[in-house]
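Look at a sample.

——
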Amino acid sequence: MENVILIIHLLLALALIGVVLLQRSEGGGLGAMGGGGGGAGGVMSGRAAATALGRLTWVLAIAFICTSLALTIIAAQKSTGGSVLDRLGEQPAAEEPADPAAPADDTLVPPTPGESAPLVPRAD
């Protein structure tokens, strides 16, 4: 389900970009090249085309926001922890440094109290 919503989300993003680029801006933009422009002599006048593109932009934008919210809800349900701020507070305490004189495991034997020799492997 998440993949379907993600694909719809990406298609909406591309469509929204395309519709915004087709709209007429004050400087002319891509809309002046005949994408619903003034002297094309099409079925729709320039004002009607601008209104239709504006409405289509709103519809695509609302659908894009809805898919964004749906993806956010799905991701929140899949997450194991709380928010990022909650995770920052749960950092594990630093471990105490090991005593260098203590053996790391059973294979090393400490020197006798009067010696200054390093730890040596046990001879079994």
Observations:
- Residues 2-83 form one domain.
